[in-house]
Design goal:
Length: 135
């Protein structure tokens, strides 16, 4: 139920600024990809990760497309990375991941929060995040 509430809040927060096509894509593609990433992360790494989109910057189809890619990279990479206690400990420091748009693609981490910024053409996916978290 908690995951459903998170997914719905994700949908509702972007609804206020997105058009119909964006809302439909968010509901049909992005929200399920986010939910799957959270589920696979928890199953593989043994801890929860909340993924949120910044509504003011993830407001177009192209921006939503990049956010979906970030989620898919977590879904595809978590099981292969979280194979030992040290790796799990490294990524479990991140409790929340914010996906946003910025002038340049980047990933930053501070106080349990990761920020994966895309520039509209490229994004920081799982491999780049783990390099930063594993320091």
């Amino acid at each position: 139920m908690k995951r459903f509430v998170i997914a719905m809040s994700l949908c509702l927060s972007a609804t206020a600024i997105a058009g119909k096509a964006e809302r439909e894509y968010l509901k049909s593609d992005v929200a399920p990809a986010v939910k799957e990433a959270e589920t696979k992360f928890k199953a593989a790494c043994g801890c929860a990760l909340k993924i949120v989109l910044t509504p003011s910057t993830i407001d177009t189809q192209d921006n939503l497309y990049q956010a979906k890619h970030v989620a898919e990279s977590i879904s595809g990479g978590a099981a292969g990375y979280c194979t030992d206690d040290e790796s799990k400990k490294a990524v479990c420091k991140m409790k929340t991941l914010e996906v946003t748009r910025a002038k340049e693609s980047s990933f930053s981490f501070k106080d349990g929060k990761g920020v994966s910024a895309h520039d509209g053409q490229s994004y920081y996916g799982w491999d780049a995040m783990t390099r930063e978290l594993d320091k």
